[in-house]
Amino acid sequence: MKFAYLRASTSQERQDLSRQYRFAHNNGVEDENIFKEYASGGKIDRIEFNRLLKTVENSDASSKEIYFSSVDRATRSLKQLINLIEWAKENHIKLVFGEFIIDCRDTLSAFTQGQLLMIGLVSELTRIFIVENVKDGLATAREAGRIGGQPKLTTERIFKKNPDFARYYIDYKQGKYTKKELGRLCCVCRNTITNWIHIIEKGSNC
Questions:
Q1: Which backbone phi and psi does 135 adopt, to 5 degrees?
Q2: How far apart are CA 204 and CA 173, in angstroms?
Q3: What is the pLDDT of residues 74-127, one digit of tens each?
Q4: Which run of H or E residues covers position 8?
Q5: Distance between CA atoms of residues 63 and 91, nearest Å
Q6: Cα separation of 20 and 14, whole Å?
Q7: Pairing verdict, β 100-103 and 94-97
Q8: Is 36 in contact with 4 (CB distance < 8 Å)?
Q9: For residues 99 and 68, what is the distance between their CA atoms, to the nearest angstrom?
Q10: For residue 69, what are the contacts with CB-CB under 8 A and spacing of at least 6?
């Protein structure tokens, strides 16, 4: 059975998911086996990523494959990549990262594992450089008298940032979904959902 994981760091990167969807579909992954998420690749505890692993692990299929359009869509943490490989070995799962295939259903060569870990190291270093550049940019902005950072969240910005939330919020208010279910539909954590709901309801009472 084939599964796929799609990830972007923020909802503004939604255009990236269409390419990842094409990669999954071109490799024969059905929509019900596609897991998508908006979260940092450096974050270890990701809701949909963990759900994917649990679903694959519990599957009765004789052959299991997971597709990522690239290594950095799976993770930007070298430690997590190592853990993913070890997990795939234990469960005899084939991992596909774009053109790079690591078939843990068979014995892996040291060379293949080394190649993948080098790619993972580059992904983690890229994330670190991005974080450092953002910090430097904010520091420069403050020195120049600009506050920097994200603008204040409003209802309009929330709905624009995550159209899925705008779509399902009314259903949530009508009791069709819990906060946990709403978060899953919108690919954000429960704390973020709680914060957004607070902002919207506070704004509507002004």
A1: -60, -45
A2: 13
A3: 988 888 888 898 899 899 999 999 988 888 888 777 777 777 777 777 667 665
A4: strand 2-8
A5: 10
A6: 10
A7: antiparallel
A8: no
A9: 10
A10: 6, 19, 20, 23, 24, 97, 98
Q: How confident is the model at residue 43 (pLDDT cuts 50, 70, 90)?
A: confident
- Please name the helix (run of DSSP H) or strand (run of DSSP E) that holds residue 142, with its range, or none: helix 110-143
**What's at 134, amino acid-wise?**
V
Indicate whether this model's pTM tops 0.85: no
Tell me the CA distances in angstroms from 77 to 45, 84, 87, 155, 162, one per residue in order. Answer: 11, 10, 15, 33, 26
Would you list the DSSP string of the chain? -EEEEEEESSGGGHHHHHHHHHHHHHTT--GGGEEEEES-TT-S--HHHHHHHHHHHH---SS-EEEESSHHHH-S-HHHHHHHHHHHHHHT-EEEETTEEEETTSPPPHHHHHHHHHHHHHHHHHHHHHHHHHHHHHHHHHHTT---SPPPP-HHHHHHH-HHHHHHHHHHHTTSS-HHHHHHHHT--HHHHHHHHHHHHHHHT-
CA angle (48, 54, 56) in 5-degree steps = 100
In angstroms and rounded to an integer, the radius of gyration of the C-alpha atoms of the chain is: 19
Distance of alpha carbon 157 from alpha carbon 25, whole angstroms: 32
The CB-side HSE value for 90 (13 A sphere, CA atoms) comes to 9
> Is the alpha carbon torsion for 177, 173, 197, 163 positive or negative?
positive
**Number of other residues whose CB lies within 10 A of the CB of residue 49:** 21
